[in-house]
C-alpha cells in the first residue's frame, strides 16, 4: 500500500497540459430535442445555447445545457450519412466528447500529438462579436474525443456558431455543481495501454487501482485505475472487464456500446439528500438500495457522518470513507435503452477516493439489473 496522500500523488503529474476543469460533455444522440428536454426536466439543467438549421448550421442540431459548472451539449445528425448519425447507429446515444478547459488549445494539441495523441481536430480559432474561442482535439479510448477549449474572455452564450437559447420552460436546478470524474470502459487487455496513454500523452498520474480480486462479487469482475491530472480537476478512471463466474458488467457495456466508451459521469452536489429526492421526484431511476445490514454497519465501518443515516437509507445512498474523510454516492440506472451510460451523484466530505468500500453493495445492485436484462 502506498502511503502518499492524493495531493502528493497528483503533484507527481507533469504539467505540459494545464487543465482548468471540464469545459463541456457532448453527447451524440438520436433526438437532441427530446434528450435536452429530459436533462432539463429530470436533472434540472438550464437552457443555454442552440445551433442548428435556424442558426445556419445545416448538418446537425445541438442544444447546450448548464447546471453549476456542468455543461452538456446534446447533438444529433440531420441526415443518415452524417458521422453523428453513424456514431449513434453503432453506439446508441452516448458521450462523444469530453472537453477540457485549457489555457492554450494550440499548445495542448502540439504537446499531446507530439507524444502520440491521434489528431481529431487541428487547432482552430473561432470568432464572433462576443470574442474568441480556440479549440483542438485528439482521440482517447474507442471513438471518444478529448477536445481542448481555450476561452479568450469569450462573452457569448457558449461559443461562436451557437445562439443564446431562451426557453419558456425552465425547471428548477437540482443542486448539481461540477463534474467530479468521468469513467471509461476499455476492452480486454486495454487497461495497461490506456493508462500508459494518459501518462505519456496527457501527463496524468495513476492515483488509485483496484484489481479483480478486490472487486469481484458473485459475478461482476472488473479492474479499475484512476488517472488524474496535476491539479485533480480532470479525473478519468478506466475500467477493464475481468474473468468472473459470469459476464462482467464492463463486458455487457462493451457488447451494447459496440466498443469502448464513457461508462459513467459523476456529478457533485453539496446536498445529496436534496438532489436525489428531487431527481427521484422527476423520474430519474436509481439502482436499488443495499440491504438493511449495510446501513446497520455504517457507524462501525465509517464512523461519524453529519447526515441522518435513516434518510440516506430511504434514498438508497451509499456511504464510504478513506483516511481523508467520507463520501456519499448513488448511481442511476442506464439513461438509454442500451445498458451503457449512467450517472453517479457524489457528495464529498474530505474523501478523495471513489467508494471502494461500496463496490460489493454497488455491484450486487448492478448485477440485479444485468439479470433483469438477461445479460448475466
Ligand atoms: O468511479 C468509480 O470508480 C466508482 C465506482 O463499473 C465504480 O464510481 C466503478 C466501476 C463501475 C461502477 C462504479
Ligand atoms: Fe464513479
UniProtKB/TrEMBL annotation:
Cofactor: Fe cation
Pfam families the UniProt entry points to: Glyoxalase (PF00903), Glyoxalase_5 (PF14696)
CC cofactor note: Binds 1 Fe cation per subunit.
GO MF annotation list: 4-hydroxyphenylpyruvate dioxygenase activity; metal ion binding
Keyword Transport among record annotations: no
Keywords assigned by UniProt, alphabetized: Dioxygenase, Iron, Metal-binding, Oxidoreductase, Pyruvate, Repeat
Protein name: 4-hydroxyphenylpyruvate dioxygenase
Protein family (similarity comment): Belongs to the 4HPPD family.
Domain VOC, residue spans: 21-151, 178-333
Entry-linked PROSITE patterns: VOC
CDD domains named among the record's database cross-references: HPPD_C_like (cd07250), HPPD_N_like (cd08342)
Example GO BP: L-tyrosine catabolic process
InterPro entries: 4OHPhenylPyrv_dOase, 4OHPhenylPyrv_dOase_C, 4OHPhenylPyrv_dOase_N, Glyas_Bleomycin-R_OHBP_Dase, Glyas_Fos-R_dOase_dom, VOC_core
Annotated Fe cation binding sites: 181, 264, 344
Amino acid at each position: 500500500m502506498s502511503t502518499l496522500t492524493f495531493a502528493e500523488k497528483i503533484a507527481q503529474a507533469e504539467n505540459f497540459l494545464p487543465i482548468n476543469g471540464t469545459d463541456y460533455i457532448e453527447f451524440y444522440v438520436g433526438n437532441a430535442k427530446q434528450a435536452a428536454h429530459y436533462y432539463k426536466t429530470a436533472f434540472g439543467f438550464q437552457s443555454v445555447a442552440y445551433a442548428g438549421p435556424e442558426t445556419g448550421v445545416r448538418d446537425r442540431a445541438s442544444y447546450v445545457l448548464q447546471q453549476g459548472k456542468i455543461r452538456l451539449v446534446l447533438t444529433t445528425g440531420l441526415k443518415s450519412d452524417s458521422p453523428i448519425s453513424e456514431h449513434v447507429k453503432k453506439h446508441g446515444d452516448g458521450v462523444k466528447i469530453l472537453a477540457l478547459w485549457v489555457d492554450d488549445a494550440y499548445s495542448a494539441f502540439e504537446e499531446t500529438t507530439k507524444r502520440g495523441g491521434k489528431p481529431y481536430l487541428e487547432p482552430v480559432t473561432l470568432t464572433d462579436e462576443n470574442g474568441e474561442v480556440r479549440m483542438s482535439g485528439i482521440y482517447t479510448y474507442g471513438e471518444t474525443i478529448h477536445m481542448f477549449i481555450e476561452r479568450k474572455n469569450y462573452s457569448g452564450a457558449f461559443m461562436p456558431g451557437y445562439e443564446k437559447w431562451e426557453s419558456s420552460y425552465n425547471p428548477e436546478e437540482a443542486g448539481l455543481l461540477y463534474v467530479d470524474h468521468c469513467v471509461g470502459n476499455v476492452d480486454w487487455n486495454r487497461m495497461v495501454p490506456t493508462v500508459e496513454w494518459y501518462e505519456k500523452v496527457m501527463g496524468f498520474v495513476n492515483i488509485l487501482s483496484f484489481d479483480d480480486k478486490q472487486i469481484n462479487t458473485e459475478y461482476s469482475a472488473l479492474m479499475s485505475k484512476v488517472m488524474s491530472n496535476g491539479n485533480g480537476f480532470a479525473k478519468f478512471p478506466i475500467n477493464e472487464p475481468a474473468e468472473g463466474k459470469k459476464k462482467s458488467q464492463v463486458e455487457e457495456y462493451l457488447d451494447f456500446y459496440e466498443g469502448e466508451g464513457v461508462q459513467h459521469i459523476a456529478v457533485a452536489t453539496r446536498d445529496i439528500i436534496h438532489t436525489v429526492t428531487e431527481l427521484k421526484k422527476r423520474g430519474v431511476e436509481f439502482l436499488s438500495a443495499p440491504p438493511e445490514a449495510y446501513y446497520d454497519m455504517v457507524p462501525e465501518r465509517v464512523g461519524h457522518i453529519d447526515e441522518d443515516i435513516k434518510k440516506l437509507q430511504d434514498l438508497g445512498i451509499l456511504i464510504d470513507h478513506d483516511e481523508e474523510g467520507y463520501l456519499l454516492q448513488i448511481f442511476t440506472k442506464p439513461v438509454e435503452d442500451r445498458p451503457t451510460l449512467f450517472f453517479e451523484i457524489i457528495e464529498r466530505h474530505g474523501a478523495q477516493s471513489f467508494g471502494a468500500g461500496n463496490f460489493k453493495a454497488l455491484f450486487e445492485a448492478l448485477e440485479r439489473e444485468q439479470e433483469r436484462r438477461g445479460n448475466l
